[in-house]
Amino acid sequence: MANTWRGYSMGHNPTSGVLSVERRKELYAIASKYDIIIVEDDPYWYLQYPSAVVAEAKSRGLEPAKSSGYPFLDSLTPSFLSVDTEGRVIRLDTFSKTIAPGCRLGWITAQPAIIERLLRITEVTTQQPSGFVQSTVAELIMGEQPAAARSAFAALTSRQKQTFEGWKMDGWVRWLEGLRGVYERRMNRMCTILDEGSIQLKQSTPRSADDADWGVVSKTKLYEFDWPRGGMFIWLKLRLETHPLWQATGGQKVPLLDGESLSTALMFLATKKPYRVLVSPGLIFSATPAIRAERGWAYFRICFAAETEENIDLCSQKLADAIQKFWRIKKVEEVEDLLGDFVPPQDDEVFGNLGTFMGC
Question: Which processes are annotated in GO (biological process) (predicted)?
Fold first, then answer.
């Protein structure tokens, strides 16, 4: 019996990474060798951001990648289906990320034998998604229906016809292109602002009047991230080891200011005035307790899809300002005040509930 591997290959949550074609081929070869079924869960397939490559290079003074000469091919990374020669890929798609999150409607692409088994399982379990949602989405995408429906449609007035014409496939593709463009603009604007705020400058104080005209300016890297190639999130890595209170001895409530306590304090600072921004702590995405303890605290997931385009600049700047402010804290008491009576939960479910209101 075949084993199963399930993974996000486009716009991974929370990292927004996109699996390259080369890596897909390597994974497929391993799956073939050990008889593993690949379940490709791809809700963010249409939300790939080719401009992130160019914009990131421009923002950071890097050389842009060479184009193949075909803009469309440059902008899309193919599915695992493109390398599936043995029928071992089960691909999951959804309308939830492109029409409405509440529609809960999608489709599965796989070899006929697998689809037949899935159909039988569905018949004795969920049966089908919401009929109302199915008819609404079908009307949007398919437009005109079979002969009987077309006859009824012909009898409608011009105004009524405009109401029921639907997107059809061309309209659906235009909608997807426009949707990707909206998210791509938000992503580029947020990443640009976060890039600008990622370094803190400090100037040394002159030791004497003779040195008044001189000073040493130091740069401290506060965080780093990769510009998303797809999805809805920025995976921010905090450089907490550069914080002035890193590993400082605390009080009774917080004996040691380690990575988890500093990360949590920063998260709470960002929720206070004048910042009022929410991030999802990397702790809730840690696959194991060991990962959570070793490095889960070093990350924040930031969602750029949930905020309106008009507010992206302001929210991004507020987050950058909150991080800059946190690195200027030099008293242990201030960090302890931010933490208050907070006790880090040890249960995974509690961690999950902690993050449900943060981001998207």
Answer: alpha-amino acid metabolic process
CATH class for the region spanning 185-354: alpha beta
Tokens 């998604």 locate to: 129
- Rounded Cα–Cα distance for residues 273 and 190 (Å): 20
Give whichever of 100-104, 125-129, 146-150, 316-320 has the largest mean pLDDT.
316-320
- Is 185-354 the same fold as 3-141? no
pLDDT of residue 268: 94
The order of strands in the sheet holding 280-281 is: 223-224, 233-238, 299-303, 280-281
Distance CA 4, CA 39 (A): 7
The DSSP annotation for 333-358 comes to: HHHHHHHTT-----SHHHHHHHTTTS
Could you tell me if 184 and 51 are in contact, meaning their C-beta atoms sit under 8 angstroms apart?
Answer: yes
Confidence of residue 175 (pLDDT cuts 50, 70, 90): confident
- The answer to whether the CB of 305 falls within 8 A of the CB of 179 is no
Q: What is the mean pLDDT of residues 153-176?
A: 73
Q: Which one of 3.40.366.10, 3.90.1150.10, 3.40.50.20, 3.40.640.10 gives the CATH number of domain 3-141?
A: 3.40.640.10
CB crowding 94-126: b at 16 or more within 10 Å, else e: bbebbbeeebebeeebbeeebeeeeeeeeeeee
Measure CA of the first residue to CA of the last residue in the chain; give whole Å. 37
Does residue 238 contact residue 263 with C-beta atoms inside 8 Å?
yes
